[in-house]
Amino acid sequence: MDKSNTVKLFVGNLAQDTSQEELSAIFEPYGAVVSCSVLRQFAFVHLQGEGAAARAIKELNGREFRGRNLVVEESRGRPLHSTKVFVGNLSAMCTAEDLQELFQTFGKVLECDKVKGFNER
Fold this sequence. Notes:
Layout (H helix, E strand, L loop, with lengths): L5 E7 L7 H8 L4 E8 L2 E7 L3 H9 L3 E2 L2 E2 L1 E4 L21 H8 L18
Antiparallel strand pairs: 1-3, 1-6, 2-3, 4-5
Protein backbone atom coordinates (compact mmCIF):
# COMPACT_ATOMS: atom_id res chain seq x y z
CA MET A 1 0.00 0.00 0.00
CA ASP A 2 1.40 3.41 -1.00
CA LYS A 3 1.58 5.52 2.14
CA SER A 4 2.78 8.69 0.41
CA ASN A 5 -0.61 10.37 0.85
CA THR A 6 -1.23 9.09 4.38
CA VAL A 7 -1.76 11.74 7.05
CA LYS A 8 -1.63 11.20 10.81
CA LEU A 9 -4.56 12.87 12.55
CA PHE A 10 -4.96 13.64 16.24
CA VAL A 11 -8.46 12.99 17.56
CA GLY A 12 -9.24 14.42 20.99
CA ASN A 13 -12.06 14.73 23.50
CA LEU A 14 -13.15 11.10 23.13
CA ALA A 15 -15.33 9.25 25.59
CA GLN A 16 -13.11 7.11 27.84
CA ASP A 17 -14.46 3.82 26.44
CA THR A 18 -14.29 4.67 22.72
CA SER A 19 -13.15 1.65 20.69
CA GLN A 20 -10.86 1.51 17.68
CA GLU A 21 -13.70 -0.01 15.67
CA GLU A 22 -16.05 2.90 16.47
CA LEU A 23 -13.44 5.49 15.59
CA SER A 24 -12.38 3.75 12.38
CA ALA A 25 -16.02 3.65 11.27
CA ILE A 26 -16.29 7.44 11.66
CA PHE A 27 -13.21 8.07 9.48
CA GLU A 28 -13.77 5.42 6.78
CA PRO A 29 -16.12 7.62 4.67
CA TYR A 30 -13.24 10.09 4.17
CA GLY A 31 -10.47 7.68 3.13
CA ALA A 32 -8.75 4.40 3.93
CA VAL A 33 -7.98 4.04 7.64
CA VAL A 34 -4.44 2.67 7.62
CA SER A 35 -4.25 2.48 11.41
CA CYS A 36 -6.14 3.70 14.45
CA SER A 37 -4.68 3.83 17.97
CA VAL A 38 -7.01 4.80 20.79
CA LEU A 39 -5.39 5.95 24.02
CA ARG A 40 -7.28 7.33 27.03
CA GLN A 41 -9.46 10.17 25.68
CA PHE A 42 -7.55 10.73 22.45
CA ALA A 43 -6.43 8.77 19.43
CA PHE A 44 -4.25 8.84 16.35
CA VAL A 45 -5.76 7.90 13.01
CA HIS A 46 -3.64 7.41 9.89
CA LEU A 47 -5.91 8.27 6.97
CA GLN A 48 -4.99 7.64 3.34
CA GLY A 49 -6.43 9.16 0.21
CA GLU A 50 -6.05 12.37 -1.77
CA GLY A 51 -7.59 15.14 0.36
CA ALA A 52 -8.97 12.60 2.87
CA ALA A 53 -7.42 14.26 5.93
CA ALA A 54 -8.58 17.76 4.95
CA ARG A 55 -12.14 16.51 4.40
CA ALA A 56 -12.15 14.60 7.69
CA ILE A 57 -10.88 17.63 9.61
CA LYS A 58 -13.44 19.92 7.97
CA GLU A 59 -16.38 17.57 8.59
CA LEU A 60 -15.48 15.98 11.92
CA ASN A 61 -13.75 18.69 13.95
CA GLY A 62 -16.34 19.92 16.47
CA ARG A 63 -18.84 17.20 15.55
CA GLU A 64 -20.70 15.60 18.45
CA PHE A 65 -19.79 11.96 19.10
CA ARG A 66 -21.12 10.11 22.12
CA GLY A 67 -22.02 13.34 23.90
CA ARG A 68 -18.69 15.10 23.29
CA ASN A 69 -17.43 17.45 20.58
CA LEU A 70 -14.52 15.87 18.72
CA VAL A 71 -11.22 17.65 18.20
CA VAL A 72 -9.75 16.55 14.86
CA GLU A 73 -6.52 18.07 13.57
CA GLU A 74 -3.33 17.08 11.82
CA SER A 75 -0.96 15.53 14.33
CA ARG A 76 2.05 17.60 15.30
CA GLY A 77 5.33 15.90 16.12
CA ARG A 78 7.03 15.96 19.49
CA PRO A 79 8.99 19.09 20.33
CA LEU A 80 12.69 19.06 19.41
CA HIS A 81 15.02 17.61 22.00
CA SER A 82 12.25 15.63 23.68
CA THR A 83 12.17 11.89 24.20
CA LYS A 84 9.24 9.53 24.52
CA VAL A 85 9.74 6.89 27.21
CA PHE A 86 7.73 3.68 27.64
CA VAL A 87 7.53 2.34 31.18
CA GLY A 88 6.09 -1.15 31.55
CA ASN A 89 5.10 -3.53 34.32
CA LEU A 90 3.40 -0.85 36.42
CA SER A 91 1.22 -1.55 39.40
CA ALA A 92 -2.50 -0.91 38.89
CA MET A 93 -2.19 1.51 41.82
CA CYS A 94 0.33 3.69 39.96
CA THR A 95 -1.23 6.82 38.39
CA ALA A 96 -0.09 9.14 35.61
CA GLU A 97 0.47 11.76 38.31
CA ASP A 98 2.78 9.37 40.18
CA LEU A 99 4.82 8.84 37.02
CA GLN A 100 4.98 12.54 36.26
CA GLU A 101 6.22 13.28 39.78
CA LEU A 102 8.87 10.55 39.51
CA PHE A 103 10.19 11.62 36.10
CA GLN A 104 10.15 15.40 36.65
CA THR A 105 13.28 15.00 38.77
CA PHE A 106 15.09 14.29 35.47
CA GLY A 107 13.62 17.18 33.49
CA LYS A 108 10.41 18.79 32.31
CA VAL A 109 7.65 16.25 31.63
CA LEU A 110 5.69 17.41 28.58
CA GLU A 111 3.04 14.69 28.66
CA CYS A 112 2.34 11.63 30.76
CA ASP A 113 -0.32 8.99 30.15
CA LYS A 114 -0.89 5.61 31.69
CA VAL A 115 -2.42 3.30 29.10
CA LYS A 116 -4.09 0.10 30.25
CA GLY A 117 -2.44 -3.01 28.86
CA PHE A 118 -4.01 -6.18 27.54
CA ASN A 119 -3.98 -7.89 30.94
CA GLU A 120 -5.17 -4.90 32.98
CA ARG A 121 -8.90 -4.19 33.21
